[in-house]
Amino acid sequence: KAGLSEFSDPVVQSADVQEMIGRVHFYVEPEAESAGFDKMTSLLRIHLRDGRVISGRADFAKGSPANPMSFDEAAAKFRGCAEFAEWPRQKTEKLITYVKTLDSTRDISVLSPLLSAEKG
Questions:
Q1: Is pLDDT above 60 for 41?
Q2: Global pTM value
Q3: How far is residue 31's CA from residue 35's CA, in Å, rounded to a whole number?
Q4: I want to staple 41 with a disulfide (CB 3.0 to 4.6 A). Which of 32, 76, 82, 83 is the partner?
Q5: 3 state SS of 33
Q6: CB-based burial of residue 22 (10 Å sphere; 0-12 exposed, 13-18 middle, 19+ buried)?
Q7: 69 with 63: CB under 8 angstroms?
């Protein structure tokens, strides 16, 4: 799974990633396009050196309304983003806990300090 750090300049500019980028070809597949914009169909074909082709298809991206993330998946994604932004772990976990119990929270003003940047 690629996180934000995999898209940093040092990683993207590394020799092995640049070599892989050179082997990736992107094009609009008529079959995907004909599925319509409500699906955002993606087709993937990997051509191996031995001649085999591995393929896959996704009509609905993870996180879309038709294929939503679970709370735990969204929380894990948020943790990765917060870590990349160098947020304090304790603040991240507290925010996740508050969001998970938002329906039963009587005073949402506790969220503001958790969403603000650290002073210093």
A1: yes
A2: 0.75
A3: 7
A4: 32
A5: helix
A6: exposed
A7: yes
- Taking residue 113's Cβ as centre, other Cβ atoms within 10 Å add up to 10
Count of positions (residues) in the chain? 120
Contact indicator for 108, 101 with CB cutoff of 8 Å:
no
Q: Is 89 among the domain residues?
A: yes
Q: Return the HEC string of 44-86.
A: EEEECCCCCEEEEEECCCCCECCECCCHHHHHHHHHHHHHHCC
Which amino acid appears at position 96 of this protein?
I
Query: Does residue 68 surpass a pLDDT of 90?
Result: yes
Per-residue confidence band for 7, with pLDDT thresholds at 50, 70 and 90: very high
Q: Which two tokens stand for residue 87?
A: 């947020």
**Burial degree of 98 (CB within 10 A; 0-12, 13-18, 19+):** middle
Amino acid present at 113: P
| Same domain membership, residue 50 and residue 85 | no
Locate tokens 């650290």: which residue?
Answer: 118
> Do the domain assignments include residue 120?
no
